[in-house]
Write a structure and sequence with these properties.
Blueprint: E1 38-39, E2 50-52, H1 59-69, H2 76-80, E3 104-106, E4 108-109, E5 112-113, H3 116-131, H4 134-142, H5 147-160, H6 167-179, H7 187-193, H8 230-237, E6 246-251, E7 254-258, H9 261-277
Helix pairs in contact: 4-8, 5-6, 5-8, 6-8
Length: 282
Amino acid sequence: MHMNPPPRSTIRLTRRGRLALIATGAVVAGTAVAVPLLSLESEGEKKPTTLVIPEGWRAGQVYDAVDKALAQPPGTAKKSMAKVHLKLPNDAEGNPEGYLFPATYPLEQNGKRTTPEALLRYMVDTANKKFNGAPIAAGAQRNAMNVYQAVTIASIIQAEAANKADMGKVARVIFNRLERGMPLQMDSTVNYALNRSTLRTTTADIRIDSPYNSYQRMGLPPTPIDNPGEDAMRAAISPTPGDWLYFVTVKPGDTRFTNSFGEHQRNVAEFNKSRHKSPTPG
């Protein structure tokens, strides 16, 4: 029996599984995680020889990193998209989001400095090798979706899961909500529409007119919302069995999943109580 979604004014899932009650105006302050941008193969090098793309970075972050690594003017990598041929799915309509695979990439080839075009092509080619192989492609088909949809789900998992252990459960929440005709109500998709990740999400934010607003729009967003890694991709095609519809990280290491709205409200109350005891600086 399918369940009707709770009123949108009552509940919302937030980035990394944190939740706030819109009715009370509760908000969550996120924290930025510092990630090493460049790594050197040996000490004493004047120029970086590799570029590290972390899991979960958006295309804009990747472009900026490429420009910095190759000492190019800001905006160069993004502009180069117009002249580089990338092997992307038709559904992507030329947007590489989700296909700039997180990995460590060499900045020199045959003794020559690489170009933004070559580097972006390398990332997409790496993604295609990872995603179009038997495990991912077959797993997507097994779950009645194409690879691009699997990458899109993985990108939400990457943004929402507090840790690797929670990824399979977050995937199951996404599948369960889709199957029941419930909106995903993920703040990570709204943050993508607003081009931010750690700011508060307000009631005004979730009313924005955007195809990425998963409060207003049903189903998946039109594209991935970041570039997911292999763990998130595995979770997307092999979600953990369960009937969960809600999740909230009450405190670090304590993410609670449930199919009961009442139990979820109690978890949220505990989260809010804990948050007020330890206010976030700033």
